Amino acid sequence: MQYFHPLFATVLLHLLLRASFSFPAPLMDASSDSRTTSCSSHPFRLGYVTDVEGNLEFFKSFVDRSNVLDRIDDPNDRNDSHLEISLRDGCYFVYGGDSVDKGPGDIRFCRALVSLKKTIS
User: Fold this and answer.
1) For residue 95, which of 87, 84, 105, 104 has the smallest C-alpha distance?
2) Whole-prediction pTM value?
3) Tens of pLDDT, residues 37-73
4) Fewer CB within 10 A of the terminal residue: the chain, N end or C end?
5) Residue whose C-alpha is closest to residue 48's, from 69, 64, 34
6) Per-residue pLDDT tens for 13-36?
7) How many Å separate Cα 109 from the centre of its chain?
8) By C-alpha distance, which of 113, 119, 82, 83 is closest to 97?
9) b/e 38-62 (16+ beta carbons within 10 angstroms → b)
10) 39, 66 in Cβ contact below 8 A?
């Protein structure tokens, strides 16, 4: 049996996502807000991020720009005690790993990922 190191899988997925193919763009009229568009009308919508390393501000920025994740908590709230996120309908999210390291938000970031996992299970 051949063993693949988890880093190999992460690098492979990263390379596949950066390949020369693209996913369908959202179909919406000019008056609609892309942040509220459901992914279910599209064949495939995937969000991918890796190496957050406990940097909660980096991940919050990613979620704010994401087409597959939404913040449930108030983004203007200065209380950094938690982060609540949700996955849009019909969308997929892959976390590539390396969640904790030197960042000040290790536990809060892990709690957000576990909470997301519990809501979609």
Assistant:
1) 87
2) 0.63
3) 555 555 678 999 999 999 988 999 999 999 999 999 7
4) N
5) 69
6) 555 555 434 444 444 434 445 455
7) 12
8) 113
9) ebeebeebebbeeebbbbbebbbee
10) no
